[in-house]
Design a protein that fits this description.
708 residues, Arc Repressor Mutant, subunit A, Tex N-terminal region-like, Nucleotidyltransferase, domain 5, 5-stranded mixed beta barrel, 47% helix, S1_domain, mRNA binding
C-alpha cells in the first residue's frame, strides 16, 4: 500500500491529482497557494479537498512510522515470520495494526504468563485442539508443587486460552463490528452529586440510554463532560449473548464437551475481563473522535464566518468598552488603527456624570474627526448605546455594537503588551473593540481562536486537531482577503502563505528601518525572504502605491509577463488594461493557453483585471436591537424582535437579542422543511427577525423561531 492508494480510499480524486498535489506539498507549497496558483497541476482542487489530502497524508505517514516500529520490535523478539510481516505491511488502519501487534506487545505480568511459567501451555493447546475426551485425566500430568490440583491446572490453561482469545485478530475484528452496530451508551447520576447546583445542567443525562451510533456529537460531548466532572457514570455495552456467540463461533470446532466446556468458560472470562473493556474503550474513542471532528468542523465554519465578517474599513473610530462602576473606557483611533487618545467617562450609575460625559464625547468626535463609534457588547452595552445615540453630534457618525468576545484575552496577551507597552489592559481592550469594527480579520488573528466565543465544547475536543483545523481556517481567510504588507501587524502577516512568525517579524522590522515596501520585487530584500517564500507569499501581499499596477492585485508576479502580453496585443499598457471592461471582454483567452497556464488561471487573471484588489468581504451595516428589550423580563412569548446570530452549533444557532442571555433557535425551528446543516440556513453575524417561542426566566433560557 502506498500513500496514493491510502488517500484514494478516503477521497474521490485521481491518482494524477494526488501525485501532483503531494509533489507540491513536499516542495513546501501551502494550501492557499496550491488552490489559487497551481490549479492546472491539481485539476482545480479546492482548499477543502487539499486540506483533506494533507490530513490523510499525515495519517498515512503516521501509520507507516508505526509499522516500522512494530516490525522492529517483533524482529528483536525473534518472532517475525514472513506471513506476519506481510500482514503488518498491508494493514490499512491503526486498529488492524495494533490487533496484529497485541500478542507481541510488552505488558505487565498476566495470569496467562504465570500459567506458562507453571508449564501449562501444552494443556491449553490440548484443550484448544478439541480432540481429547479425557481432559481432566490429562490435566493430572501437569500438577506440581506449585500447581497442586487438577482444577489449578485447568484454570491455568483457561487463563492462557482467554489470552489467546483476546489477542485473536479475527475475534477482535468481529467484536469490533458488533460494537459498532449495537453498542449502547448509558449514563447514570452519581447519587451524591444529584442535588448539587452544578449538576443540574446535566439533569437530562441522570438516567440516559441510547444507541451509541445514534448519539449526536453535541450530546456525546456533553455526556462525556458530565462524566469528566464526576456527575455521571458512563457505560458502553452490547448484548452479552451476542458477543459470546460471536467469540464461540470462532473458537468451537467440535462437540467434544470435555474440551468445549473449558473453552466456553475461557471465552466468557476473556470477554468480561479483557475484550469488553477494550472494545468499549475503543468504540467510545471512535465515537468521541467523530464527535470531535463534528464540533471542530462547526467551530471552523463559525470562525471562518467571523474572520470574514464585514469590515468598516479605514475610518477614524471612537471605541468604548462599557462599564457601570468602573466607567466606560474611551479610545480614539486614526484610519490605520493607531491610538490617538484615551480616557474614562462615567455616564451610568453610580456616578451618573451624564453632562460631562456628553461634553467629552462631543469634543473627542470633533477634535479627532471621528467617523464611527464602536461599542463593546458586554456589561452596560445597551445603556451605553442609548447614551451615545442621545448625543447631538455636529457631524454624521455611525454607531455600531461590536462583539467583544476575547478582547480581554487580547488585552492581557504578549501581542497587546508589545503593541501598547505603556497602557493598561482597559485601554488595550477598548482599542481591540475599535479595530474589530475597522477590520475584524486583522484584529481577531491576534487572539487564540478558542477565546473568540464561536464554538461549543472547544475545551473537550482533541486540542491538537482543533488547533490545526483553526490555523488552516485562519490562513485560508487571510489569503482569501489579501494583506497590505505596509499596514499589517506581525500576527496577521504570519498567516500569509509562506511567511510564518519569523519572516513576519522581519517584514515589520524592515518597514521600521527602511520605510514602506514600494514593490513586490522589493520583498526579496527582506532578510530570509528567499525565492520559495516569495513564490508562496507575493501574490497575497498587496502594495497599494507600487509603480507596478499589478502589485495591488492577486495576479501572481510569475504571470506579469502574460498580462503585459495581453495588454500589448490589445494596444494598451497594463495600467490602461486594468478596469477597462470593454478591452478585457475582447480578450480571446484561449490564445494564451500553454502547458503551464490553462483556463482556470486565465479566468482568474481576467476576473482580477476587471476589479483588482477588491475586498471579497461585504460592507458592514448598522444594526439596532429592540429598544424596549433590556432584560430577560422584557421578553415575552409571541414577540417578534431583531437579533444577530452569534454562535452556530449542530443543533441550532444562538441569537443575540440585545440582552445578557442569547436565545436559541433549535434546528427544527429554522425552516418549514427538514434541514441537516444549520449553516445552510443561517450564518454568523446574520441579522434576523425572530419570534419568541418560550421564555424560562428561572433557567435564563429563551427559545426562538424563524418558522411562522
Amino acid at each position: 500500500m502506498n500513500v496514493f492508494s491510502f488517500i484514494k480510499k478516503e477521497l474521490s480524486v485521481s491518482e494524477n491529482q494526488l501525485v501532483k498535489t503531494i509533489q507540491l506539498l513536499d516542495e513546501g507549497a501551502t494550501i492557499p497557494f496550491i488552490a489559487r496558483y497551481r490549479k492546472e497541476m491539481t485539476g482545480n482542487l479546492d482548499e477543502v479537498i487539499l486540506a483533506d489530502i494533507v490530513k490523510y497524508k499525515a495519517a498515512f505517514e503516521a501509520l507507516e512510522k508505526r509499522k516500522e516500529s512494530i516490525l522492529s520490535t517483533i524482529k528483536e523478539q525473534g518472532a517475525l515470520t514472513t506471513a506476519l510481516e506481510v500482514k503488518i505491511k498491508n494493514a490499512d488502519s491503526l486498529l488492524v495494526l495494533e490487533d496484529l501487534y497485541l500478542p507481541y506487545k510488552k505488558k505487565r505480568k498476566t495470569k496467562a504468563d504465570v500459567a506458562r511459567e507453571n508449564g501449562l501451555e501444552p494443556l491449553a493447546h490440548l484443550i484448544f485442539k478439541q480432540v481429547e475426551e479425557e481432559v481432566e485425566f490429562k490435566a493430572q500430568q501437569f500438577t506440581t508443587d506449585t500447581v497442586t490440583t487438577v482444577e489449578d491446572a485447568l484454570q491455568g490453561a483457561r487463563d492462557i486460552l482467554a489470552e489467546w482469545i483476546n489477542e485473536d485478530e479475527r475475534i477482535r475484528s468481529t467484536l469490533r463490528r458488533l460494537y459498532q452496530r449495537k453498542a449502547v451508551i448509558s449514563a447514570t447520576v452519581i447519587k451524591s452529586k444529584k442535588e448539587l447546583e452544578e449538576a443540574q445542567k446535566y439533569k437530562q443525562y441522570f438516567e440516559w440510554e441510547e444507541p451509541l451510533h445514534k448519539c449526536p456529537s453535541h450530546r456525546l460531548l456533553a455526556i462525556l463532560r458530565a462524566e469528566k466532572e464526576k456527575i455521571v457514570r458512563v457505560k458502553i455495552t452490547v448484548p452479552e449473548s451476542d458477543a459470546l456467540d460471536a467469540i464461540d463461533r470462532h473458537c468451537i470446532k467440535t462437540n467434544i464437551e470435555a474440551c468445549t466446556d473449558h473453552i466456553f468458560i475461557a471465552s466468557s472470562d476473556a470477554y468480561k475481563r479483557l475484550l469488553a473493556p477494550a472494545m468499549a474503550t475503543e468504540v467510545l474513542g471512535q465515537a468521541k473522535e467523530k464527535a470531535d471532528n463534528d464540533a471542530i468542523h462547526v467551530f471552523a465554519q463559525n470562525l471562518k464566518q467571523l474572520l470574514l465578517a464585514s469590515p468598516l474599513g479605514q475610518k477614524r473610530i471612537l471605541a468604548l468598552d462599557p462599564g457601570f462602576k468602573s466607567g466606560c473606557k474611551v479610545v480614539c483611533l486614526d484610519e490605520k488603527g493607531d491610538l490617538l487618545h484615551n480616557e474614562n467617562i462615567y455616564p451610568h450609575p453610580p456616578q451618573r456624570d451624564t453632562t460631562l460625559s456628553i461634553k467629552k464625547i462631543k469634543s473627542l468626535v470633533n477634535a479627532y474627526k471621528i467617523e464611527a463609534i464602536a461599542i463593546g457588547n458586554g456589561t452596560a452595552a445597551r445603556e451605553t448605546e442609548a447614551f451615545i445615540k442621545k448625543i447631538p453630534f455636529d457631524r454624521a457618525v455611525q454607531v455600531f455594537m461590536v462583539n467583544e468576545s476575547g478582547a480581554s484575552v487580547y488585552s492581557a496577551s504578549k501581542i497587546a503588551r508589545s503593541e501598547f507597552p505603556d497602557y493598561d489592559v482597559t485601554v488595550r481592550g477598548a482599542v481591540s473593540i475599535g479595530r474589530r469594527l475597522a477590520d475584524p480579520l486583522a484584529e481577531l488573528v491576534k487572539i487564540d481562536p478558542k477565546a473568540i466565543g464561536v464554538g461549543q465544547y472547544q475545551h473537550d475536543v482533541d486540542q491538537n486537531k482543533l488547533k490545526n483545523e483553526l490555523d488552516t481556517v485562519v490562513m485560508s481567510c487571510v489569503n482569501t482577503v489579501g494583506i497590505n504588507v505596509n499596514t499589517a501587524s506581525a500576527p496577521l502577516l504570519s498567516y500569509v502563505s509562506g511567511i510564518g512568525d519569523k519572516l513576519a517579524e522581519n517584514i515589520v522590522t524592515y518597514r521600521f528601518e527602511n520605510g514602506a515596501v514600494n514593490s513586490r520585487q522589493e520583498l526579496k530584500k527582506i532578510p530570509r525572504l528567499g525565492g520559495k517564500a516569495f513564490e508562496q507569499a507575493a501574490a497575497f501581499l498587496r502594495i497599494t502605491n507600487s509603480k507596478h499596477p499589478l502589485d495591488n492585485s492577486s495576479v501572481h508576479p510569475e504571470r506579469y509577463a502574460l498580462v503585459k502580453q495581453m495588454a500589448k496585443d490589445a494596444g494598451l499598457t497594463v495600467q490602461e488594461m486594468i478596469g477597462n471592461t470593454a478591452a478585457i471582454q475582447k480578450i480571446n483567452i484561449s490564445k494564451y493557453i500553454t502547458d503551464e497556464v490553462g483556463l482556470p488561471t486565465l479566468n482568474d487573471i481576467i476576473k482580477e483585471l476587471q476589479k483588482p484588489g477588491v475586498d471579497p468581504r461585504k460592507t458592514v451595516s448598522v444594526f439596532e436591537f429592540d429598544p424596549t428589550v433590556k432584560t430577560i423580563q422584557d421578553v415575552h412569548t409571541g414577540m417578534k424582535i431583531p437579533g444577530i446570530v452569534n454562535n452556530i452549533t449542530n443543533f441550532g444557532c444562538f441569537v443575540d437579542i440585545g440582552i445578557k442571555e442569547s436565545g436559541l433557535i433549535h434546528i427544527s425551528k429554522l425552516a418549514n422543511e427538514y434541514i441537516s446543516d444549520v449553516n445552510a440556513v443561517v450564518q454568523l453575524n446574520q441579522q434576523l427577525m425572530v419570534t419568541v417561542v418560550e421564555v424560562d426566566t428561572a433557567r435564563k433560557r429563551i427559545q426562538l423561531s424563524l418558522v411562522d
